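Tokens as discussed.
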């Protein structure tokens, strides 16, 4: 049986075109895209063939990032032969939860390998994953090695450090400052702000609208004036609604958007 090389090329172009359309549609459902962000998404789709819908690419603070799952799928698609990972023991300090790993990606049996390093300690990971710094460092090392091996200039989501925090409010940090320090750790639990910011990132919610909704939910003039118990109850309710009825939650959040004034 003979295969027409030209038809294979046409099929590949068609698949990329289809994936590009799907990616743009999926991205617009989750984020408001600028013309430049859309153009970059087209480029990344053509070059990397990653999917927004299944979480290969994320838009964070206006920039595109690749995810660990996306990198692993790309490696499998390109028949990566092996990924070897080991700790760099001279730089590790288990007592202080500091870990450094070296990962080597072999694209083929004859490949000499592409090396990447990843580090993690309590100062550069979210408090939500404190205690898991070893796994974070390993993932970061693998991501860097894969990005080198396949020429991916995009930073990966897992490589992002979470500290120090910016005081400016943004799309991923609603600038929560709870009174009486009730944003701090309590009984080893994650900080409320960290939990809320993670929810906003995971479900692509508007931070400003969430903040307004939270104050209304807690019956306080501002979220700053709410008690820890009130804020915790709000976060639990928000997490449940985002998981079960995101569309309904989005509609409610949109009701807190400021309406433009109409001159008589």
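Sequence:
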């Amino acid at each position: 049986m003979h295969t027409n090389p030209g038809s294979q090329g046409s099929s590949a172009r068609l698949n990329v075109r289809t994936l590009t359309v799907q990616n743009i549609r999926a991205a617009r459902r989750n984020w408001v895209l600028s013309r430049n962000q859309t153009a970059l998404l087209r480029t990344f789709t053509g070059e990397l063939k990653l999917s927004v819908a299944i979480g290969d690419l994320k838009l964070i603070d206006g920039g595109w990032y690749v995810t660990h799952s996306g990198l692993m799928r790309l490696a499998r698609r390109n028949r990566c032969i092996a990924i070897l990972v080991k700790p760099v023991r001279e730089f590790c300090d288990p007592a202080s939860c500091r870990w450094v790993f070296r990962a080597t990606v072999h694209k083929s049996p004859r490949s000499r390998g592409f090396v990447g390093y990843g580090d993690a300690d309590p100062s550069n990971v979210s408090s939500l994953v404190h205690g898991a710094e070893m796994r974070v460092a390993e993932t970061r090392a693998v991501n860097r090695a894969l990005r080198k091996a396949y020429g991916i200039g995009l930073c990966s989501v897992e490589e992002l450090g979470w500290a120090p925090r910016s005081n400016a409010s943004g799309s991923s940090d609603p600038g929560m400052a709870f009174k009486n320090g009730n944003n701090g750790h309590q009984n080893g639990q994650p900080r409320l702000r960290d939990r809320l910011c993670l929810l906003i990132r995971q479900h692509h919610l508007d931070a400003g609208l969430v903040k307004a909704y939270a104050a209304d939910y807690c019956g306080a003039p501002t979220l700053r004036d709410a008690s820890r118990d009130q804020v915790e109850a709000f976060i639990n309710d928000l997490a449940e609604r985002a998981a079960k009825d995101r569309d309904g939650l989005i509609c409610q959040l949109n009701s807190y958007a400021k309406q433009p004034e109409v001159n008589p």
